[in-house]
Design a protein that fits this description.
By secondary structure, the chain is mainly alpha-helical. The chain has nine helices and two strands. Keywords: Membrane, Transmembrane, Transmembrane helix.
């Protein structure tokens, strides 16, 4: 019984840790919301679901740990009801996960092009990525049209410049980068990164989908095992048997030893 109790508490703690992960994921994502970067309604709904679901998992894990530690059948019963419902929902979704395409549709990125006509926060994000990942454009520098920013330019001391950069002739009116602080227009030719940023973004998106599917499978396993363990413990807990009431005409105290001795001698 002691070993079963420890297992129940352990899986309740793991379940609570997963809830903390959901809660902090929603909080962290919502912290990126600024005046320039506004989320759409679907993203806001997803953030709200993560926060609410994570908070509910944490409270449920505390209830399960309390029920296992104090051996309270009512707490274990409530905990099991919610876990069984969640397990049923997870098993209904699991078959559809096998058909999820890890290949992200490139049309999602095509909506951002041409970059010189994209929204300001998208241009800012792409410029940051171009500087860090040493790439240019979604599918190439042509995505910027006549506004190739300084973040696409290869630095003068860049290693393997011949293989990673190529010369392009900037347009006659290359003022976009100068107006936004990315440098003044250079000479008749500039060197920009050959590698596009699109494949890098797709790789991160595919990795995120794989991690999401793995996290969902982990939650399903934890919920199923935890429900089975708590249900088993609930069945092993015995209700305390009430003591039989003593009749009013009877003396609840046993007779003294002297009385018994005299009774035997007579």
């Amino acid at each position: 019984m002691a070993c079963l109790k420890r297992l129940c508490i352990t899986f309740s703690v793991i379940y609570g840790i997963l809830g903390v992960f959901f809660l902090f994921s929603g909080i962290i994502v919502s912290s990126y919301k600024t005046e320039e970067l506004q989320f759409d309604s679907e993203t806001n709904f997803g953030i709200t679901i993560c926060c609410v679901f994570g908070s509910f998992m944490i409270l449920l894990a505390l209830l399960g740990s309390f029920g296992a530690y104090k051996e309270k059948k009512w707490a274990l019963g409530v905990y099991n009801v919610f876990l069984v419902l969640q397990a049923v929902g997870c098993f209904k979704v699991l078959p559809s996960l096998s058909s999820v395409q890890t290949e992200v549709n490139t049309g999602v990125l095509n909506d951002f092009t041409p970059l010189n006509q994209a929204k300001g926060h998208i241009q800012k994000a792409v410029n940051k990525m171009q500087t860090v990942a040493e790439c240019c454009g979604i599918w190439g520098y042509e995505d910027w049209g006549d506004s190739i920013p300084q973040s696409c330019h290869c630095p003068p001391d860049y290693e393997n410049k011949a293989s990673k950069c190529h010369h392009v002739k900037p347009p006659s009116k290359d003022t976009w980068s100068w107006q936004r602080g990315y440098g003044k227009p250079e000479g008749p030719k500039v060197e920009v990164y050959k590698q596009p940023c699109g494949p890098i973004i797709l790789n991160y998106m595919e990795m995120g989908i794989k991690y999401g599917v793995g996290l969902f499978i982990t939650i399903t396993l934890v919920v199923t095992i935890s429900a089975m363990l708590h249900l088993l413990m609930c069945c092993h807990i015995k209700e305390p048997t009430p003591s039989s009431p003593v009749a009013s005409g009877e003396d609840p105290k046993p007779p003294a030893y002297t009385v018994l001795y005299k009774g035997q001698g007579s």
